[in-house]
Amino acid sequence: MFTHILVGCDGSGQAMKAVRIAAELARQFEARLIAVNVYNPWMIAPIQEEQPLDMGLVARYVEQVQQDIEKQTCCKAAELGVECRFVRALGHPVDKITQVAEREKADLIVLGSRGLGVSEAALLGSVSDGVLHHAHCPVLIVR
């Protein structure tokens, strides 16, 4: 039924549940599993105007965070006997997740219902809601 499954991961508990479900589905359908992490650079704002951001420091921080999420994600998939390819992206999460899904010819996107975004208090997170409305393929929201 599914041959290419894409899972969005941000390191949150909801995302790791989504990784588990996506890996189980990938194993069941013998599908490729692709994990994507999108870092939104617009989420960083200078605390004080007189202290500009050190963009080198920000880049190293983003790299470290994405490395940690990649390791956590791929280890979870491996525990379930599934190989996982990890994709890193910068930009708006909804746009990037849907773009990667189209480029990779995903026939299912799996996302946690809420992640580490500013709207985590909402019933359905803004990223999962946005992907649900803009994806070219079915979207499974994991609670």
How would you describe what is shown here?
β1 (4-8), α1 and β2 form a beta-alpha-beta unit. The chain is of the alpha/beta class and 143 residues long. It contains 4 helices and 5 strands; from the N terminus they run βαβαβαβαβ. Strands 3-2-1-4-5 form a 5-stranded parallel beta sheet, sandwiched between helices. Mean pLDDT is 89; it is low at 118-124. It has one domain: HUPs (Rossmann fold), CATH 3.40.50. α1 packs across α2 (55-79) and α3 (93-103) crosses α4 (126-134). It is globular, with a radius of gyration of 15 Å.
Tell me the CATH architecture.
Answer: 3-Layer(aba) Sandwich
Share in β-strands? 15-25%
How many structural domains are formed by the residues? 1
What would the average pLDDT be, to the nearest integer?
A: 89
Number of strands: 5
Which percent bin holds the helix content?
40-55%
Instruction: Report the major sheet.
Output: 5 strands, parallel
**Helix-strand string:** EHEHEHEHE
CATH uppermost class: Alpha Beta
How would the global form be characterised?
A: globular
Distance between the termini: 22 Å
Provide the fold topology:
Layout: E1 4-8, H1 13-29, E2 32-39, H2 55-79, E3 84-90, H3 93-103, E4 108-112, H4 126-134, E5 139-142
Parallel strand pairs: 1-2, 1-4, 2-3, 4-5
Based on the model shown, name its key terms.
143 residues; alpha/beta; Rossmann fold; 5-stranded parallel β-sheet; 4 helices; 5 strands; globular
